[in-house]
Amino acid sequence: MKTVAAVGEAGASVRWRKEPDAFQKPVYVTRPLLPNLDNFKDHLSDIWEAGWLSNSGSKARALEAELRDRLRAPQVSLFNNGTIALIVAAQALKLSGEVITTPFTFPATPHVLSWNNVTPVFADIDPETFTLDPACIEPLITSRTTGILAVHVYGMPCNVHAIQEVADAYGLKVIYDGAHAFGSEIDGQPITNFGDATMLSFHATKLFHTAEGGALVVRDPHLHKRIELLKNFGIKNEFQVTMPGINGKMNEIQAALGLLTLEMVEGERRARAAIGAVYRERLAGISGLQPFELPTNVRNSQQYFIIRIKKEAASVDRDTLYERLKQYNIFARKYFYPLCSDYSCYRSLPSSNPASLPVAHQASSEVLSLPFFGELGVDGANRVCDAIDFIMGSA
Ligand code: T4K
Prior knowledge:
Layout: E1 2-5, E2 16-19, H1 37-50, H2 58-71, E3 76-79, H3 82-92, E4 98-101, H4 108-114, E5 119-122, H5 134-137, E6 145-151, H6 160-170, E7 173-177, E8 185-186, E9 189-190, E10 197-201, E11 214-217, H7 221-230, E12 235-237, E13 240-241, H8 252-283, E14 289-291, E15 298-299, E16 305-309, H9 318-325, H10 358-366, E17 367-370, H11 377-391
Helix pairs in contact: 1-8, 2-8, 3-4, 3-7, 8-11
The protein binds ligand T4K.
C-alpha cells in the first residue's frame, strides 16, 4: 500500500490514507467454473468411442435428466445457447404483433422479439426489484399485443403472480428470460414453474454453464413437443418436416462440460455467498452505496453481486467508480447500461421515450456489477472493498 494525502477542503486538516495495491492480474466481473481436466478428458473419451457428437446424444440426454431432477421440471429442452432458446420459445408460443418487455436487460431479450418479427414494447420497471412493473404493463396493451417477455434480472424473480393476472385478463402468453436465474426459487418453488416458458442461459459467464448453452423449461407437454421439433429444423422423422425450425441443439461436448460443472454448482454457490457477505458487511457504511438485495423468500441464484451508487449521497458517481476501479485492475460492469430502449435500433419506438421509463433510466445510471466468482475468495473480495473504500473516500 502507498500512503497518500486525502483530498481535504481548504483549511481542513489533511487526512493520510493508505492506497490499496492494484491486483496483479485483471479481476473480471466473473470467471467460468472449470472442472478437472482429466475428468473432462474421460467424457471426451466416451464421446470419441461413441462417435456421436450432437443430435441428442447420451451426454445431452444425461444432462437433461439431471436438470429435470434439479429443477423439479417434467421436461427440459437443452439448447446451443440461451438466445436461440428464447427465439424458439417465441416461435413455439406463436407470438406476433407486439410483446411487452423490459428495457433493463441484455440486448438478447428484445432482439429475440425482432427476430420473430415482433415489435418490443418497453414498459418501466419496479424501483425495488428492477423487474418489469406489472402496473406498467396494462396501459401498453393494444389489439396487437400477444405476450409478455419479462426478465428475472440478476436472478431477482419478477412479480410472477401479478404478471400472470394481467396475462390471464388479456389472453397473453408469458415468457420469462431467466438467463440469470438458474437455482432461483420463490417460496421454495423453482423459478421455472411460472409462466408459459422459462429460458435459462448456460453461457460461460453463468454460474452453471456449458461454455455456450441454454434451456427451455415448460410445463405443457404439447408445447414441449413443439419446442423439440423447432430446435431440430422441424424434423418429425426421416421423411417428414412439419414446421420451419432452426438448429438449436446442444452438442455432446457442451453437455459433457455441463455434467461436470453441475457437480461444482453447490460449492460455488457457497463460495459466492461468502463473498457476498464480505461485500455486504464492508460496503454497508459507505455513504450513497447500497447492495441490491433479494427478498428473504427468494433463493438467490448467486449470479451477480450488484451495488447501487446513489448520486445525491455518494462522494463519487457510478461512472467515476467504474473507471477508477480499473486503476486497481478491477473490471466491474454496468449491467445494464445503456437501456435497450436507447439502442439505435429501438430508440425510435414510441415506447422508448425516456419520459415513460423513469425508473429504468434511474436504475441504469446507478448499478454496478462487482467481481463475483468463487475463485476471488474472501481475501479478494476484501481487496475489492479496500479499493472501493479508498475511491469513495471512506477508508
Ligand atoms: N438474456 C439475458 C438477460 C442475458 O443476460 C443474456 C446473456 C441472454 C439473454 C442471452 O443468453 P446467451 O445467448 O448468452 O446464453 C456476457 C455474456 O456473454 C452473456 O451471456 C450474458 N447475458 C451477459 C450478461 O454477460 P458480455 O458482453 O458482458 O461478455 P464479456 O465477454 O464481456 O464477458 C464478461 C466477463 O466475463 C469478461 O470481462 C471476463 C469474463 N469471462 C468471459 C468469458 C466469455 C471469462 O472470464 N471467461 C469467458 O470465457 O456478456
